Description:
The chain has a single domain, classed as Metallo-beta-lactamase, Chain A. The model has no long low-confidence stretch (mean pLDDT 95). By secondary structure, it is of the alpha/beta class. The chain is built from seven helices and 18 strands.
Amino acid sequence: xxxxxxxxxxxxxxxxxxxxxxxxxxxxxxxxxxxxxxxxxxxxxxxxxxxxxxxxxxxxxxxxxxxxxxxxxxxxxxxxxxxxxxxxxxxxxxxxxxxxxxxxxxxxxxxxxxxxxxxxxxxxxxxxxxxxxxxxxxxxxxxxxxxxxxxxxxxxxxxxxxxxxxxxxxxxxxxxxxxxxxxxxxxxxxxxxxxxxxxxxxxxxxxxxxxxxxxxxxxxxxxxxxxxxxxxxxxxxxxxxxxxxxxxxxxxxxxxxxxxxxxxxxxxxxxxxxxxxxxxxxxxxxx
Length: 287
């Protein structure tokens, strides 16, 4: 399933979103000394490295260059024993689906209890304004189910879980060591700040907007100012920028929100090279 879905997205979504100025993924490299990023076409997956521990955040596509690009960063697939999953869309779980190459077959998956209902078949994922049902995803890894507000510790790394439903019914974001917030597909960064993620792909856009507002209130209420690290549009350390348009939707087909700095076709990753991955830290936006 994951290989078929990956190839479909690489071809069909490349045509669909070409020139829409929507996807602006980071290239492969390091954000800072703790967070590494791999680019898989339009999507980013991340690795949080602390002392000798490595935690992977999302599992991307069923992507045949993943081990190669991890090698650019000096991260071995076998070192990954824990994977945090924000949600179960193909571009976030492909490398752990049953038909994947099995790079992470021994890793434990951490996923929200609500989101896991997609994996059990209790609910079906709907996209394109609910017009299209996606096939059920099959994952055989050991799973740890998480609750909203739960705090866990993995190898001395603190992880706090925030349920932010809307894009999917059980989408989670993860605050790591009170410093890094991995947001998956909750926020889309445009040139002028953050919006609720792509409207056509949401289960419930109104709920997504409410979830963003609630997330901001929680962070500000605790005086937390993390790095906001997104799945498709880079990162920022500017909270005002991150939530600038939290009540608005990214609507690519209506041109309501777009970013002229985004590549014409983000599925073209010819500028993602080993030399660049090793040369500098990856710049943020909204500074």
